[in-house]
Amino acid sequence: MIVRSIIFYILLSLWTILMGIIHIPLLFISSKFLYQPVKIWIKGIFFLLEKIAKIKHEIRGLDNIPSSGVLIASKHQSAFETFALFYYLSKPIFIHKKQLFWIPIFGQYLKKINMISIDRNEGISAIRKILKIATNKISEGHSVIIFPEGTRTRPGQTPIYKSGFLGIYAESNCSIIPVAVNSGHFWPKHSFIKQPGKIVIKILNPIPPKLEKTDVLKKIELVIEDETNKLLKLK
After folding, report:
1. Which SS3 state, helix, strand or coil, does residue 91 take?
2. What angle (nearest 5°) sits at the alpha carbon of residue 72, between those of residues 60 and 136?
3. Which helix H or strand E contains 116, and what residues bound it?
4. Most buried residue, 90, 137, 181, 199, by CB count within 10 Å?
5. Hey, what long-range contacts does 21-24 have (CB within 8 A, 24 or more apart)?
6. What is the pTM of this model?
7. Are 148 and 219 a contacting pair, CB within 8 Å?
């Protein structure tokens, strides 16, 4: 799989550069015109994963996503779920660290689409800013996507769920959709080599609004970890 992984990354780099250059004019007009080109870019990644790295994927439970704005809380094991959730969800918005804006080409498109960035150096003021922006995005019908663990975790690694997203849940008065994944088996953290198989992204039943914050945090962790462990057995 080393050779296949090398070929995958070479073609991915060329594909990213090509798409980034072709669509540079879109950086100077409304961000709404960028969603489709980004989805085309992601579809190309799916193609390369399947044909070169021999990694297929399946999305389950899309009917659990409401037509209104919603908060998505996803397990995070690889870059794959960021691509998949952007591709399959309507009006997706990610909350991510500010440093991603610094990546050439990719970062400029992230910024143009108005993703929500976190500057951890700003402390409590950053949290207030994110809360306000995320709540507004949900009220406008966006799917705001967060990773409660804050970083990628390896399959089987002890999870540490952070409570930062609960402010958005309380303020926006919306449901939370948990998401389980098994992507870490095939796109391992800190590993160059891709492993063949099928990545499954499972969108679970919504957790209703207005629950106690402590109850929500426990429930989110329980349902995501339980379903993720079931998916990991599919390896």
Report:
1. coil
2. 140
3. strand 116-118
4. 181
5. 21/105, 23/109
6. 0.88
7. no
